[in-house]
């Protein structure tokens, strides 16, 4: 269970006490504030706080005194211009603070994004919960035969059962030992900071993660991408929905220019120009490696 009834009651209490503010408010984000959105079997994402909205981006770009909005169309056009031309600092004026519960092996990928502020649940101070990520059957997949960094077909039948049994059994056994080691029942008991080293990477951790919109979009570009590992992608997908409601113009521009767009090398651009002139461009005469050629075809075919 991602959150307990007591935790839900705390969230409900926070949402039941609105306050007046002079600050910029995004109605779309207000609807999400504090709510926990489940991800994977025990994880969640929830917004703790945010700063700014679409018009804050325009206000910063224009370095204006007031609201900064000339008209809604103007704001959307400006945001699209900024995104298109990599004028990124106005997007840094918006911030998002999330509370995330995630498996440790996902946290290891996530923490590589250095341009955020993080505070993680302390397993030196506190005892970790008995919560382990066990993949759903459709995600219990074999190693991909075409991509060393990916998965292929889902395991089925006895093979799937065998793997699930190992995952569940190891998690239960290592947690039993964790409890046994830290127990001070008539013994000294091992320090929590040491006992945790025996726990597997599918145990859940939690953190507060604060990031500005520019770096958040960079994170989403990489982690909501189809090449990202499923277990981090589902978190990124959930965050995408929040961002779409928080800063709809910025998110739309991001979808258009970053998620849906593609960067072409000079060589690839040359191939496209030759194709437009009617030349038959092939893997042999494109002047690029086989892999680059394949990737260009993927971009052009959609
Ligand atoms: C599909 C995929 C596969 C990956 N595989 C591996 C892997 O096999 N092994 C592995 O180790 N990592 C891997 N990574 C992690 C990847 O190399 C990056 O570390 C991660 O995506 C964070 O990206 P970033 O550095 O751009 O983000 P951030 O750390 O948030 O940085 C954002 C931007 O800030 C700038 N910046 C931040 N810090 C510095 C700095 N110290 N010096 C200069 N510029 C800085 C850079 O412009 C950077 O792009 C993988 C990532 C993806 C998405």
From TrEMBL:
<feature type="binding site">
    <location>
        <position position="120"/>
    </location>
    <ligand>
        <name>FAD</name>
    </ligand>
</feature>
<comment type="subunit">
    <text>Homotetramer.</text>
</comment>
<keyword id="KW-0808">Transferase</keyword>
<dbReference type="GO" id="GO:0006235">
    <property type="term" value="P:dTTP biosynthetic process"/>
</dbReference>
<keyword id="KW-0285">Flavoprotein</keyword>
<comment type="function">
    <text>Catalyzes the reductive methylation of 2'-deoxyuridine-5'-monophosphate (dUMP) to 2'-deoxythymidine-5'-monophosphate (dTMP) while utilizing 5,10-methylenetetrahydrofolate (mTHF) as the methyl donor, and NADPH and FADH(2) as the reductant.</text>
</comment>
<dbReference type="GO" id="GO:0070402">
    <property type="term" value="F:NADPH binding"/>
</dbReference>
<feature type="active site" description="Involved in ionization of N3 of dUMP, leading to its activation">
    <location>
        <position position="223"/>
    </location>
</feature>
<dbReference type="GO" id="GO:0006231">
    <property type="term" value="P:dTMP biosynthetic process"/>
</dbReference>
<feature type="binding site" description="in other chain">
    <location>
        <position position="196"/>
    </location>
    <ligand>
        <name>dUMP</name>
    </ligand>
</feature>
<protein>
    <recommendedName>
        <fullName>Flavin-dependent thymidylate synthase</fullName>
        <ecNumber>2.1.1.148</ecNumber>
    </recommendedName>
</protein>
<feature type="binding site">
    <location>
        <begin position="109"/>
        <end position="112"/>
    </location>
    <ligand>
        <name>dUMP</name>
    </ligand>
</feature>
<keyword id="KW-0489">Methyltransferase</keyword>
<feature type="binding site">
    <location>
        <position position="218"/>
    </location>
    <ligand>
        <name>FAD</name>
    </ligand>
</feature>
<keyword id="KW-0274">FAD</keyword>
<feature type="binding site">
    <location>
        <position position="223"/>
    </location>
    <ligand>
        <name>dUMP</name>
    </ligand>
</feature>
<dbReference type="GO" id="GO:0004799">
    <property type="term" value="F:thymidylate synthase activity"/>
</dbReference>
<dbReference type="GO" id="GO:0050797">
    <property type="term" value="F:thymidylate synthase (FAD) activity"/>
</dbReference>
<dbReference type="Pfam" id="PF02511">
    <property type="entry name" value="Thy1"/>
</dbReference>
<dbReference type="InterPro" id="IPR003669">
    <property type="entry name" value="Thymidylate_synthase_ThyX"/>
</dbReference>
<feature type="binding site" description="in other chain">
    <location>
        <begin position="120"/>
        <end position="124"/>
    </location>
    <ligand>
        <name>dUMP</name>
    </ligand>
</feature>
<feature type="binding site">
    <location>
        <position position="89"/>
    </location>
    <ligand>
        <name>FAD</name>
    </ligand>
</feature>
<dbReference type="GO" id="GO:0032259">
    <property type="term" value="P:methylation"/>
</dbReference>
<comment type="pathway">
    <text>Pyrimidine metabolism; dTTP biosynthesis.</text>
</comment>
<feature type="binding site">
    <location>
        <begin position="212"/>
        <end position="214"/>
    </location>
    <ligand>
        <name>FAD</name>
    </ligand>
</feature>
<feature type="binding site">
    <location>
        <begin position="112"/>
        <end position="114"/>
    </location>
    <ligand>
        <name>FAD</name>
    </ligand>
</feature>
<keyword id="KW-0545">Nucleotide biosynthesis</keyword>
<dbReference type="GO" id="GO:0050660">
    <property type="term" value="F:flavin adenine dinucleotide binding"/>
</dbReference>
<comment type="similarity">
    <text>Belongs to the thymidylate synthase ThyX family.</text>
</comment>
<keyword id="KW-0521">NADP</keyword>
<dbReference type="InterPro" id="IPR036098">
    <property type="entry name" value="Thymidylate_synthase_ThyX_sf"/>
</dbReference>
């Amino acid at each position: 269970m991602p959150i307990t009834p007591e935790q839900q009651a705390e969230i409900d209490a926070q949402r039941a006490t609105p306050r007046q503010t002079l600050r910029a408010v995004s109605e779309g984000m207000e609807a999400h504030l504090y709510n926990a959105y489940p991800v994977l079997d025990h994880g969640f994402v929830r917004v703790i706080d945010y700063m700014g909205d679409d018009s804050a981006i325009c206000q910063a770009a224009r370095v204006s005194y007031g609201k900064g909005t000339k008209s809604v169309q103007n704001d959307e056009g400006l945001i699209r211009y900024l995104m298109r031309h990599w004028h990124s600092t106005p997007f840094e004026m918006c911030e998002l603070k999330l509370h995330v519960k995630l498996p440790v092996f996902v946290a290891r990928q996530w923490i590589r994004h250095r341009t955020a502020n993080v505070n993680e649940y302390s397993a030196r101070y506190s005892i970790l919960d008995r919560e382990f990520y066990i993949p759903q059957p459709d995600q219990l997949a074999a190693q991909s035969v075409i991509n060393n960094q990916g998965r292929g077909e889902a395991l089925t039948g006895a093979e799937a059962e065998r793997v699930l049994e190992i995952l569940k059994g190891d998690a239960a056994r290592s947690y039993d030992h964790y409890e046994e080691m830290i127990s001070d029942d008539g013994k000294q008991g091992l320090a929590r900071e040491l006992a945790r080293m025996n726990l597997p990477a599918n145990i859940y951790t939690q953190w507060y993660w604060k990031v500005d919109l520019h770096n958040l979009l960079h994170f989403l570009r990489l982690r909501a991408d189809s090449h990202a590992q499923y277990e981090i992608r589902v978190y990124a997908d959930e965050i995408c929905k929040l961002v779409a409601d928080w800063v709809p113009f910025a998110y739309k521009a991001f979808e258009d220019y970053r998620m849906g767009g593609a960067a072409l090398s000079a060589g690839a651009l040359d191939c496209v120009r030759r194709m437009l002139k009617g030349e038959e461009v092939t893997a042999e005469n494109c002047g690029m490696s086989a892999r680059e050629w394949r990737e260009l075809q993927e971009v052009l075919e959609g």
